[in-house]
Amino acid sequence: MSTKKIKVICVDDSALIRDLLTEIINAQPDMEVVAVAPHPLVARDLIKQHNPDVITLDVEMPRMDGLDFLERLMRLRPMPVLMVSSLTQSGSEITLKALELGALDFVAKPGLGIRSGMMEYAAEIAEKLRAAARSRPRQARHKNTPPRKELSAPMVSSEKLIIIGASTGGTEAIRAVLEPLPANAPAILITQHMPGGFTRSFAERLNRLCRVTVKEATDGERVLPGHAYIAPGDQHLKLARSGANYVARLDSGPPVNRHRPSVDVLFRSAAQQAGKNAIGVILTGMGKDGAQGLLEMRQAGAATLAQNEASCVVFGMPREAMAAGAAQEVLALDDIPGRMLSLVAASGHAQRV
């Protein structure tokens, strides 16, 4: 009995990239390229004709702005879109804007910037297309949407920490968690699956939107309240101690769960170094990275939260964490920021009593 294949349309101005993506996708038993387009004007008619499950969309196209096309598409016919991005500063900024507009995820353009072999690259594309086909298309946040109401932070010691892990759909989920936090929130360490070259733009974008200071983590720097530290792409982020202070440590060791940075690596270090002074949060993403680390955090006395299925773009990582017994509470994304702060306040009160 044959199963229905995932239908994909590839939109890219490069014939070479269109051919390569077609070859990779058609080699998979469960998906096929039903059409290709050199630019969005052609893609528009092909979408109506073929009703695809997923679109791959070039980030930078000379004939028409891909972002304008994406914005219209997500408004008129929301569907899973996987961006194909160049590993450049402008490419990363456009990609982050595309994720804000509703794109599900992105892959790097094949070429000299691809570290691993083509088989691994093909496996990554196939995995992300499968996740996209199962995902919930989401409307972009409207440009006139007022900023989230600022929450108030409890007065707690610098011992309190919030530790966050995310993957597919995580860039906007992390934004939703950080935006309402006050400038004096506890220190936050974040691992988001993202390649090198993208995390700095991601941190800078969040820093413009949030009251807390958001930055890409650097090795050995002190971890301070009112700051959020993003794991650099291609390096693990760990929590460590230097005397009485927490510090960030970066590690170029092998990938864990096929990821570097890995959520498990960050969560495990928080379990070992912070114990009950930390709060662990696992957000949307495919795969199982973070489930074991979150369990270790819970076993070390930390409060642990997972994003619920209804608010996840991809309910993979939270589901695995829940199955492992790692999550004490399962919450909608919008409820997580306030719950984090109330848990910090409760643990601080318990310590003072």
From TrEMBL:
Keywords, sorted A to Z: Chemotaxis, Cytoplasm, Hydrolase, Phosphoprotein
Domain of life from the UniProt record: Bacteria
Top-level class of the enzyme under EC nomenclature: hydrolase
Chief location category: cytoplasm
Presence of the UniProt keyword Cytoplasm in the record: yes
Subcellular compartments: Cytoplasm
InterPro entries: CheB-like, CheB_C, CheY-like_superfamily, Sig_transdc_resp-reg_Me-estase, Sig_transdc_resp-reg_receiver
Enzyme Commission designation: 3.1.1.61, 3.5.1.44
UniProt-annotated catalytic positions: S167, H193, D289
Residues of the Response regulatory domain: 7-124
Record field: catalytic activity: L-glutaminyl-[protein] + H2O = L-glutamyl-[protein] + NH4(+); [protein]-L-glutamate 5-O-methyl ester + H2O = L-glutamyl-[protein] + methanol + H(+)
CheB-type methylesterase domain span: 155-347
Function noted in UniProt: Involved in chemotaxis. Part of a chemotaxis signal transduction system that modulates chemotaxis in response to various stimuli. Catalyzes the demethylation of specific methylglutamate residues introduced into the chemoreceptors (methyl-accepting chemotaxis proteins or MCP) by CheR. Also mediates the irreversible deamidation of specific glutamine residues to glutamic acid.
UniProt xrefs under HAMAP family: CheB_chemtxs
Family of the protein in this entry: Belongs to the CheB family.
Protein name, as recorded: Protein-glutamate methylesterase/protein-glutamine glutaminase
Source lineage: Bacteria, Pseudomonadati, Pseudomonadota, Gammaproteobacteria, Oceanospirillales
